[in-house]
Amino acid sequence: MEDTISLKTFVFFACALFHFLVPSLAQTCNSYVFLNQNIYRSCNDLESLNSFLHWNYNQPTNTVDIAYRHTKIAPQRWVAWAVNPSRKGMVCSQALVAYQNADGISSAYTSPVTSYNTRLEMGDLSFQVEKISAEFANNEMIIYAKFVLPKNVTWVNHVWQDGPVNEDYSLGRHALDADNLRSMGVVDFLSGQVVTTKGGSSNLSLKKVHGGINMISWGILLPIGILIVRYTKECTENRIWFYAHMICQSLGYTAGIVGAAIGFYLGVKSHGIQYDAHKSIGIVLFVLGFIQVLAGKLRPDVEHNLRKKWKIYHLGIGYLVILLSVTNIFKGFFILKAMKIWMLTYVGFLIFFFVLFVFSFNPILRCKKVEASA
């Protein structure tokens, strides 16, 4: 009886604690106290890059007084918050930039962003900025600014970023991680509503399809095709092994073409966002796959004196394709910041493949015709 009462008491207090803790944890920006004692009526915890936006909107003058906070930031990095009056995204945005200069003083200025190759040079914005300043403390950079919104406008597209400060104190390019690519949204200064858009990750679903197709085609079907040859070629009276191998490889390469086409489409749409190594390996794989298909059509007869050389070439290219495929798949994992379960699952498959491949060199384990067993 006492155990039952104790359990009920524990559950009651646990629920009560959860009830009080969750709202407090969700109000990160509301509970923040600024060192300069500024008070902002509206704020929002932005979805990515440990960032927060605080503001006061003055409707009669259509001005906004903002404080953009970027936490967990190293002193050798710059931060920026920008308004884009004409479109979503980085290009054409009007940025407020802050960093620590050579004297360790926080410097803030305005910078119009005209292209993806911007160096965030100082310049006037398309709207009036009445004041701007910055402060850095406890690995947190804050940009304070007051600006005038365009007439009859209360909501705007906005973006925020961080990046490295070079040794000469020029500003380097920001990373292309998932957090950096989704750091954009829409803010309504009048209603206080902030909506995070998919931004640079608007093609995230398509990227996942691209990655999934290529992992299955280049990373699973092609290795299985190799195992089919290793384990069945020498133990079948007919050419079933050959057709099974061809079907597996053909399915893999056909699906790989679809995956490559999606990758090409993503590359065209992602202006200024390129993964050169991933792209280059993909092109090499596509070409090698085509050469393998062509070589299969042009293979010499068994009795031909070039058959042995062709076999060495065919095997060499095949193993190279597998090696490059695995490399590119893991590059894709890191680009998408894939969940560990997917990476671990694929690692498990690779271990399975490697073990079977090594064991296939043992004639006892392969289904091999041996006269002694007849």
UniProtKB/TrEMBL annotation:
Keywords: Electron transport, Iron, Membrane, Metal-binding, Signal, Transmembrane, Transmembrane helix, Transport
InterPro entries referenced in this protein's UniProt entry, alphabetically: AIR12_DOMON, Cyt_b561/ferric_Rdtase_TM, DOMON_domain, UCP037471
Transmembrane segments: 211-229, 241-268, 280-300, 312-335, 341-361
Cytochrome b561 domain segment(s): 178-370
Signal peptide residues on this chain, from the entry's feature table: 1-26
GO cellular component: membrane
Boundaries of every DOMON domain copy: 49-163
Chain residues that bind heme b: 210, 245, 278, 314
Listed PROSITE patterns: CYTOCHROME_B561, DOMON
Pfam families per UniProt: Cytochrom_B561 (PF03188), DUF568 (PF04526)
Subcellular location: Membrane
A molecular function (GO) term: metal ion binding
Source species, domain of life: Eukaryota
Protein name per UniProt: Cytochrome b561 and DOMON domain-containing protein
